[in-house]
Amino acid sequence: MLNIVRMDLRRLVRTRSLYAILLVLAAMLLITSFSTWYMTEKSMTDLMLFAQEQLEEENISATSEMGQIGLAASLLDASDSRVMQLQVRRAMSFGVLASMPFTGFLAHTLLAVLTALYASKDYATGYFKNLLALPGVKTKWFISKVLMLALCILIVVMAVLGLAAIGTLILGNPMEIDWPQITAFMGQHMLLSFGLNMLVLMILVLSQNKTAALTMGILLSVNTQNLLFLLLDTTDWLPFRLRDWGLMNQAMKITMGGAMPERLPVIAAAVIGISFLVSLLAINRRDLKM
Predict the structure, then answer these.
(1) pLDDT of res. 208
(2) How far is CA 129 from each of CA 38, 117, 121, 283, 287, rounded to the nearest angstrom?
């Protein structure tokens, strides 16, 4: 078992898709931080006048609420402008930067892609087939993949926190970190992401197909199943709303500093438990398609 885990660690370190998703997260957070810094280095009056010019090009009425931007800009003095600049910059705090990849499902989607690509490689390369001579190797292989999945989620969370710290330094904001809030927020998203990626792993084990796991992982992560839940809920066939029990619907209820969604622990535990048991049964009862 330990040898399989060590081998999976080596394969994970050499997995290019891991570094690709970290690069995507870095680009998102650092570009956001740098663009916010750049825009707030400019005069707020100039920025508001520029916004007014864009509104005029779009033929937005000058009498509308947005059309009053130019008038507001002309009333700003230097001190007011600087205060507004600092307020905009301070709004992009460490907590806001750290939560961005998760509130928009980006981190969950990237992790689903990583899970599908990383785990399916063993089927495509024949590595899994070569292990079959070892006793109980199927169960050991699956448990090792579950451990790697948890490690990947932890790596992504730690990377996001590090990138949020770098973004805070770029903006020149004070490093004010509310660790209880950050820990609770990240812990809830880690639990949700673990459940989502256990589903992806189950789909891979059942189908033994990278494309199926990758496609379903992306669709589940962006919550396309909510459309089906909405359609079924309109029929009133069930005594409860499916939308209230959707795993990814719980992600939209997770807020920085807010209470954990009531159903999240139950739903995540059910998804993880069912996915784990179904995957174990499938991987031990089915022959490999090679």
Answers:
(1) 85
(2) 54, 17, 12, 12, 10
